[in-house]
Design goal:
The protein contains one helix and no strands. The chain is mostly helical and about 100 residues long.
């Protein structure tokens, strides 16, 4: 009888050890999954920041391009106005 009780106790002890090992492995897996999720979140945040920087640079370049076009148009308009003024003065002086 005592032998059976001892074997039962040993079996219960082994079962408890197995359950403890399984619980630790489960916790390790959960911990690793959480770490991977955080890493994925960090990577996504970095990508978003880089994309935002690229978009801002594109907006700045477009704005500079538009300002450059406006400046060129202004210079061309002034030159044309000066030519027209010169022609008008030339005609007025000849008469």
């Amino acid at each position: 009888m005592k032998v059976k009780q001892m074997k039962n106790q040993e079996l219960k002890g082994e079962e408890q050890m197995i359950q403890d090992k399984m619980e630790r492995k489960k916790q390790m897996v959960e911990s690793e999954l959480n770490e991977r999720k955080w890493n994925k979140i960090k990577i996504n945040e970095k990508r978003e920041n880089e994309m935002n920087k690229v978009e801002l640079n594109e907006v700045k370049m477009r704005k500079l391009h538009e300002q450059g076009v406006t400046l060129v148009a202004l210079v061309v308009t002034i030159i044309i106005m000066l030519i027209l003024a010169g022609v008008a003065l030339n005609l007025a002086i000849r008469r």
